[in-house]
Fold this sequence. Notes:
The complex is a heterodimer. Chain A has 10 helices and 10 strands. Chain A has helices at 42-50, 72-77, 95-100, 109-122, 124-128, 139-151, 169-186, 197-203, 221-226, 229-235; strands at 4-13, 16-26, 31-35, 57-62, 65-66, 80-83, 157-161, 189-193, 206-211, 214-220. In chain A, strand 1 and strand 2 form a beta hairpin. The longest helix of chain A has 18 residues, at 169-186. Chain B is mainly α. Chain B contains 10 helices and 4 strands. In chain B, the strands form 2 sheets. Chain B has a two-stranded antiparallel sheet with strand order 1-4. Chain B has a two-stranded antiparallel ribbon with strand order 2-3. The longest helix of chain B has 28 residues, at 3-30. The interface between A and B is medium-sized, with 26 and 20 residues.
Amino acid sequence: MAKLGVFDLAVRYGKLLAVKDVSFAVAEGERLFVSGPNGAGKSSLLGAICGAVRAAHGRVEMDGDILSGRAPEEIARRGLSMVPEGRRIFAGLTVRENLMIGTGQRRDRAAVADDLETVYDAFPILRERAHANAGALSGGQQQMLAISRALMTNPKLMLVDEPSLGLAPKVVDEVYERLCALQALRGLTLVIVEQSSTRAARVGGRMLLMRGGRVVADGDATAFAAGDLLAEAYFGDPS
Amino acid sequence: MSLQLVFDALSLGGIYAIAALGIALIFGVMNLVNFAHGQFIACSVFALILPSADAVATMGLGALPAPLLIAAILAFGAGLAVAAEALVFRPLRNASPVALMVASFALGILLQNILLVAYGGRPKAVSLWPQLGSPVQVLSAQVPLLQLLVIGAVALILAGLALMLKRARVGLEMRAAAEDFDMARMLGVRANGVISGAFALSGALAAVVALVLVTQTGVADVRMGGQIMLVAFIATVVGGMGSLAGAVAAGLALGAASALLQAFLPVEARPFRDAFLYGLVILVLLFRPQGLFASVGAKPRV
Lengths: 239, 302
């Protein structure tokens, strides 16, 4: 059974159809990149999966459980966690409070403490700045905090929207390196929106290419970077 | 400056601060200025007495021994606010802030009219804890016992609330929700829980104000929440919408300014005390339109 199943999903903003007829499946432990030009519907797709945006049509399942139509908090409590575009950390809360905010539904306090150690070990800067206001962190540190905050909910599946946005390339390298290490450590399933397909190819994984709200290609990220499917997606006929 | 004045300023400011907090708490989590807060206060006052049109009230809940009475009236205020949220504001959760605000006005008018039907429109004499009016000697000042109690209670409530917001899970969730509610939900924070919690706290604070008002004035009046609601709303604006610390600071400042003006204005200008007070408010807002403590949570949400 697929970890995540998306069936005929459509998202509509007024008259604009941002996502249409999108279907795909993600296997347990897989790393799936969603790439494509601006306005391709990548973020709307993630929004519809995590419940932040209401789907106009279609459904989303995780482990056979239907997620569509549920409130975002109920989806999060089922083990789907979101690292949103722009990070959206709670700037007025401390780093530690940001990490603890998603642990309310977890009953096993020892496991929470273990997880806190895990993210502190992965991102030592967060341990160092645990009691500082999260707003005082740099962009890269905030991205690491956003990823760690999502991990603290103990997700089975994590959605990450544009983790490289606004970060220096070296910092992006570091973010991806830690993200992949955490994925391996926790057996996470990852769906990552990444504008740069060369970056996706470098990190490695499967890639969906979107354009005009549709999935136009699906395959190995490294194969995309070599082939001309990418040029087709960016410059080809959208119909 | 006389010591008496300090007590006046602190007790009046403290009550304003508690009322302002009741409004700021709800604004913080759902961007709603709850104009029914004044009627929450009025309803809590009338919950003490039995429904009748008599000029002198018969005690209902108000006949209970003090600790029970306080617990019962706080629970009443909290319950009223939670019920109002569930019945009126929850169905409008996704409506515009303006629609929410209008709904709060409507709720206020409805509650006031329910009180009018049940209790009649005439103010009633209510004698709650009259012994608290007796003066106590504090250093050089003669202070009514009630004033001392109010100051102590306000300090206790503020400290308790600060501790809860800082330490308790629900406090953490409220602060996160005040900054970015949608993000908090995506991390599993239940919207209904946080909002009900904020309303319960706000309603309990309204009940505190009700107890102080009725003890101080000895009157139950259907209109009694209106005046303090206005001051409290102004305090939340001056403090910076959404900032709890700002609401408390501005509430205290308004109370203090009011007491000072009362004491130092020339006798013939005293009837216009409130005009001077609100003149000061306008001055503050001219220089800091975002309020004294503009909060992160008050920024427009995308």
